[in-house]
Amino acid sequence: MAEKIELPITGMNCAACAARIERELNKLEGIKEAKVNFPLKKAEVVLGKDADLKNIIKTIRDIGYDVDIESDITVRAKREEKGLLRDFLITTCLVIPIMVFSMWPVLPYNNWILLILTIPVQFFFGLRFHKPAILNIVHLSADMNTLISLGTTSAFFYSLFVILFPQKLASAGIKPDVYFDSCAMIIAIVLLGRFFESKAKTRTYSAIRLLYELSPDECTVVKDGKETKIKTNELEMGDMVIIKPGEKIPADGIVIEGNSYIDESMITGEGIPSFKKEGDEVMAGTINGKGALLMKATRVGKDTVLSKVIRLVEEAQFTKAPVQRLADRVAGIFVPVVISISIFTFILWFIYGNDPKITNSLLSAVSVLIIACPCALGLATPTAIMVSTGIAAKSGILIKNAASLELSSKAKYILFDKTGTLTEGKIEISEIKTYMPYTEKQVLTVAYSLERISEHPFADALRKKAEEAGIEYLKVKEFQAITGKGIKGIIEDKTYYAGNLSLFEEINGPIDNDIKAQYLEFAQKGGSPVLLWYDDKIMGILNFKDKIREESQNVVSLIKESEIEPVMITGDSMEAAKAICNKTGIERYYYRILPDEKAKIVEDYKKKGITIMVGDGINDAPSLAVAHVGVAMGRGTDIAIESADVVLMKGNLSKLLTFLKISRKTLTIIKQNLFWAFIYNIVGIPIAAGILYPHFGIRLEPMFGAIAMTISSISVVTNSLRLKMFKE
After folding, report:
1. Spatial distance between the Cα atoms of 691 and 669, rounded to a whole number of angstroms
2. Domain end among 525, 547, 569
3. How do residues 532-574 score in pLDDT, each as one tens digit?
4. Quick one: average pLDDT of 274-290?
5. Which of 12, 276, 291, 402 could lock 17 by a disulfide, CB 3.0 to 4.6 Å apart?
6. What is the tens place of the pLDDT at every residue in 43-88?
């Protein structure tokens, strides 16, 4: 399996930065895939056998960015916020006198004073824009830094030319105005905008930070009869850990002594505490109630369910929803197009504009560069995805990729497995019908002996019933499972079968009418009858029932109200399938379907529209993988977590409705973000270029362009944060 690493990247300022790093990394030898997340400021790199980590880091640094391996995302975010705030405050202290002396030029050598005050703003605090812009030019690329650097530098050096050669301008009939106030104010405004943007983006991954904080820093282990406090990251598998009342559980484990109620809401989304006793499993990050527990650690560190949840939530935030492809394509060509528009604007104003032509040309060209920020486009999708996946995780819904969020919002069909999905998945024997000369004990003994070797859910129900009756199993030879139909095995030289009606008739021909009538009666009541026989002699019928989930009927009803068609697929008989569908309100169903046939049905529905498959995450793995979106009814198990696009951690079917609401809300937010990002640039760039000036005398000054640019990015992030107000 290829190694996957994450590299925290500093210096990214817009989506174009992320796209450029991603493009350069994917060119390197030995890299199978590289994805860069701008809001998270991370690169996720899948390494091949020839990959060189030093070369990867060098490549990132060569194109103007850096790798900060030492600190986590929250530390980097706080450091970035602190640096931006510091730079803004110092810049503001310089900008205030610059603005005052620009509006009221009362001092001798006023322009020279403005120059001296502007130099540190332009070339020290503005260095965070100029340095990457220069590297961009060297590598024949461009990003937001290029726009800001070109705009402010043009204004600065034009103003410097005015100071040094005022006579030349005067002789050409050009008023010798300087624009130090514009370039200084632009840098100050952009610094402030980035500070607020950074602060807002930090909030978008607060849910992940809270997940990290669920694990305690220390825990109490028992070694050689002594209690010792150790760091949680030093805990080893097999260690005995004491969990005192109110403490967080540091690892996954099994309760050895004691009993208590455990608050698992942070993992499963289930608000009611779970009672845990000796032999029960507990999960890292959950909170102990009032009882003391002694547990044995079975999974520690990165192997715990909590760690896997965090990892998968972070991975989901690296994935891209289909709607993001448009934004990515636009961001990739945006900056070169804007620079071209700026040059074209300068030429048009210089040829056809009003006097002073050079001044109007310069201001319009700079305004185009400043207002056209690709940040809003780059933030539109990933910030919404980050917030929604974090909110879902807190509700006990694990979303593993961004595409599942978008696709689910457009779902036309939801295909349900029956057992463990629409039903509780807890099979019980409701009736046993015996035929002479066989007794109920004999029927149970043979059935239990056969089923105990099987992996079928009926085996647990038989085991429970046999243990209650004090029945011991018989030795079975040549056991065989007949997929979707039943099982057989040899007991005391007789070949016994336990299976459905079709298996009996396939082997022995038509069954007795009275027995068939009894079999069908059980099935029509929603049971799953199993015939037990040897040769052609029926010993009895065992009727198995699976209780329908209390929430199933309501979930199906609300799904239908959303104009999504619910469909059930089961391996059970037509009668059993019909009984479940009648109770839940599902109109279309498929019965006696084998696992490979189930996947084929999912494929057929995919051709008709977006299809969600909901199963138990284990035996439904093929159909979950085939569906547009696979939803597993997990209970925090490894298999459930790995088997689908979305995992309902507690196995509560009503969480499916929550997921659908989150997906619709997320797509709405993304569309709003993209709309405003596109509209902002479509409207802003022509105004900045001066399209309204000839008829209305309206022109966008560079500093107002910088304000508009900042507001656009902050508005997109703030709109995404509205998802935090989501209620189930």
Report:
1. 31
2. 547
3. 888 888 899 988 877 788 899 999 999 999 999 999 998 776 7
4. 87
5. 12
6. 888 888 888 888 898 898 888 888 876 556 667 777 888 889 999 9
674 Cβ contact list (under 8 Å, min separation 6): 323, 326, 327, 377, 380, 381
Give the pair of three-digit tokens for residue 218.
């220390």
Residues 6+ apart with CB under 8 A from 60: 7, 9, 21, 24, 25, 43, 66, 67
Q: Whole domain around residue 379: which residue ranges?
A: 77-206+315-383+672-723
What pLDDT digit, counting tens, does each position of 487-507 carry?
Answer: 888 888 888 888 888 888 888
Q: How many domains does the chain have?
A: 5
Given 239, 417, 546, 620, the catalytic residue: 417
Contacts of 260 (CB under 8 A, 6+ apart): 243, 245, 275, 276, 288, 289, 290, 291, 292, 293
Assigned domain for 212 exists: no
Q: Enter the tokens of residue 119.
A: 């130099």
Instruction: Point out the domain boundary residue: 663, 689, 704.
Output: 663
Tell me if residue 417 is catalytic.
Answer: yes
* CA proximity to 394, closest of 206, 525, 590, 256: 206
Rounded distance between C-alpha atoms, residue 146 and residue 334, angstroms = 12
Hunting for tokens 């085991």 — which residue is that? 463
Q: Are residues 618 and 559 in the same domain?
A: yes
582 and 658 belong to one structural domain: yes
